[in-house]
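quick one, two chains, predict together pls
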Amino acid sequence: MGINPSEAQVEVAGLNIRYFRGGSGPVAIKLHHSTGNPGWMSSDDALAEKFDLIVPDLPGYNQSDRPVWARSVRDISILMKSFVEELELKDVTLIGCGLGGWVAAELATMYDAELSNLVISGAPGIKPNEGFIEDQIMMDWEEYVQLGFSSGENYLAAYGEDAAEVYKELWDYSREMTARLTWKPWMYNKSLEPLLQLVKIPTLVIWGADDRITPLTCGEQYSAALPNSSLQVIENAGHCVEHEETSKFVELVSEFIGG
Amino acid sequence: MFVGYFTERPYQDKSSGYFGATGRDLTDLSMSNRDYDPKLGADLYNRYLDEKVFAEEMGFDGLMLNEHHSTPFCMGGVMNVEASILARITQRAKIVLLGNVLPIWEDPLWLAEELAEIDMISRGRLVTGWVRGTGRESVAHNSQPPFNWERFQEAHDLVVKAWSQPGPFRWESDHYQFRYVNPWSRPYQNPHPPIWIPGVMSRNTVKWAAEHRYPYVMLATELGPTVESFKYYEECAREAGYEAGTQHRGYLWKVHVDETEELAEATARKYIQGPSNPFLEGNQGNVRSFIQNLPGLTSRTNLLPTSQVASAARARGKTDQLKDAPKSDMRGTFEEQSDKMGIVYGTPKTVIPKIRHVLETLRPGSIIFWDGDGAMDHDDAMRSLRLFGSDVLPAVREIGKELELDSPFDVDDEIPAGYSPEVVAAAKAAEARAAAAADAAGA
């Protein structure tokens, strides 16, 4: 533990994209939730023990420039495709959590030349056959982040009784970018699900059994639509499954890559 | 001086439990319309229309309407319907809409048509006004808040062009696209109805209004900050190359007149009872600030600031804090508002000097008295309107003359307040072309 990641920037379509990089092994990129990149987390340490892990701020989030023209998650996916190319990455395992999973899935439908594996967890992007994807606009954003965890204790373990100002600022700021990318419809793109059949690379779909943000139905729909995929449901975990059940999450990803 | 009359048209249902000490929670956007009684709605809409007609009889120059959505404090969700009826059943008063929420219109061309019809039916009595809306409005009609300001400006540009330039033309802006703009209706007034911009404190809206020479109407703001905003308008006007005057200033505030001091006070207290606007201090309602300050509704920088920003603090709607917050002390806040002249009440004799003080302090050319609101009933509203007509309005007009408070309708500016220089120039050029064509045809 205790990986000290480097911080760097790369220019994509005239925008500076910031990323952290640490660890060793096959290359993996981890894309963050709609609440922004909270920085190098302990779950990143765990992944970096297995991977050369790259954790970017998605365009418009944190310290990455805002593409003022972007109107969809697919726009962000196109930029992230160029991110992979600019860094000359090969055989990438693309891991997307929450909104980052949607970005990853969109990216995989249009580009898999340098991708070897796809992992998505708690990803919106598909209209659930039952229920709705939770609407963070109609609640206080601290309340929303809490909903991302299966229990109040797990949220407290991650962010404490009163989350640090830097996190609150991040959540508030991030939802503005999210609202620029997805609003109507909220958190899905009707043209993604039919295109998922184009994804040929192996895909692992991980879902927290208690995901209160993106219903498990979405995970089942992703798994059904992706030709080469399997669904793993982790008990006692919510939307932020990588934070709540880090070792299980990393174990599943490692097994998946190793297999 | 232009004097208007306004009521926010609250949904007053005394059986709902929202009134008085029943303690029923009045949190914005958390109240279900299962409580809505259309029969009561019918009575209230007709009552408010009747009061507007009576306000005209009593001598008011303008009848103001406003628009909010999904909320009991204002029944004007479709203000243009009320305005259309007033256009037909009133004779003289201006119909002042402050205002339509431009960014939530998916089809602003439809709005241009509606307003043009209202202007025609009223034979040129429409004063049109436009706002960006609160978060509630964006939620209610699902309009993307980060683009609110862009949509406001684009919709404005489209509507003004549709009114003032001959069609057909094509329109392609970031948020609005139309292949054929040629509404078969044009405003009665040439080149269009005057545009007023109501607002609170938004600096960029003040600046934008000043640049367009649109009068800025401050809505029930405290006197000190209102003076500051008017000063800022003047600075922006100077930068835009003109001197702003009283015709560019409007002010709306609460004034209730009654037969005795006791009755006036008892009735004025009703301003802050029941489902009246929870955003105004002293009201019983709670605001959920994370909805009011939707992401991107206020301008931000492109990069996450490293230190806490004020807008983030404002947007931090803590529901728990709201739950724990003590209910407003109505007595205290009523008196505070009264002390600050936010609520003015009394008999004509005591009310007139207070109005004079506000006029001397702010020097607005247009004022709008906000009455008959909160828990006030029809009788309360009518008593006040009668006294406005018999005593207050004549005195206020004299004060207006003495203080030289000219409204946009009192002065003959080359570029009248309510019109942008570009539109005025284009209208004049079009008139010149038409005259030349007529001459040529005659020759």
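The mean pLDDT of chain A is 95.
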